[in-house]
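Protein in question kept underneath.
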Amino acid sequence: MNRRQFLASSSIAAAAIALPGCATQSQTAFRPRSRVIGPNDTIRVAIIGFNGRGQDHISGFRKLAGVKIVALCDVDRKVLDAEAGKFAGRGEAVATFTDVRKLLEREDIDCVSIATPNHWHSLMAVWACQAGKDVYVEKPVSHNAWEGRQVVKAARKYRRIVQTGTQSRSNPGLREGVEWIHAGNLGKVTVARGLCYKPRQSIGHVTAPTAIPEHINYDLWCGPAPASPLMRARLHYDWHWQFVTGNGDLGNQGIHQMDIARWVLRENTLSPAVFSIGGRFGYQDDGDTPNSQFVFHAYTRAPLIFEVRGLPRSKQYQTDGWGKNMPDYHGAQVGVVIDCEGGKVVIPSYDSAIAYDAAGKEIKRWKQGADHYANFIAAVRSRKSADLNADIEEGHLSSALCHTGNISYLLGEKLRPEAIRERLKGNATGTETFERLAEHLAANGVDLSATPAVLGAYLKMDTRSETFTNSRQANLRLKREYRKGFEVPSRV
């Protein structure tokens, strides 16, 4: 069964199954319950999802003065009970939930912090805004572009403080470096290039559905996505590598660097045109997102290019030291490289940047971190979304740049390298990026003539309406079909 057949059958199966306990959309129209928070009041926070990134949310909010974690929510009962046990061991009272809808009914919660799988982010954020809660939501803020805009609308309508988990925007080292670029110290920016060179091995292949443990509420785990049989070995984390729930490394790690690149370019809309080239190479498994890819966003002032590399430096490292032998670009692996008229700035981490002149000589560097959670809490107290370093609209735009790149890929066709080169004629930057991608794949034993890459559709966008102007099929992919009871509302 190929991917399209699987998704089609999943949708049919989901429609045919009667799902007990699923509320209708009208049942999840929450009545706003919020209070005026005084300067000395304790802010009460609930953490939703903490089998991974959410652990940092717990430690981050626990250490802030005037903040108390009062509730935990996770659909995995073992994960939930283990964390609740830690709180009990410290003498800290905390309520526990498996269903986020029950949590949002509570009046003793001021804020929610969301670190669930991507396909849940927008719906939870909208519901929380409707319930009168402020929101810290992990990146990407959405699973698709349309629902991300709905979160922005909900935040504005209900006057909620909604922070995106792109913590680089709070770090002084990076803020100062970006301001230095904006001041024109190296002249105009010519290319902003994000990088996600991160080791990603095979997730394996199953021939029959994987059983779901009894301690996991799989119906709630699926939420807005089809409640289909699990066709991969591991439920947790590997959801990133299937489009039905994840967005690949472009929307996983890459959203951070995509956000920095857009920040440097000072672009506050989606790109007017986009295309992507890539594929899943080096192994055959149950993943369907690219592990080798680049996305070209054709902004007018300068292009924004994003590169994903999941394979190591060369094939020999696929069996020996995969994670320690990833390629780099100008010294950065997970970072951003900004080419300017008079040199370049390399951003190799979340909180640092290094500037070089045209001859490659280092001329300045910055490094300093800060507390992104504290910035959120400060804005919760001030009630000013302008105080946020990463307001929800910033998160929506950067997330949607990942989604539109993936849409191009999903609507593409496999072509031999000479055909791709022909299509890229006249685009020197795109051609150079493709040649480096092809060289890296060849080093990993991938022959693009025998295993062609996908040349994505060239998509043009009306940046005001955030819809494509040259592809009906692309517009259909800006949104998904939601499962009954888990619909992101069209009218927030």
The radius of gyration is 22 Å.
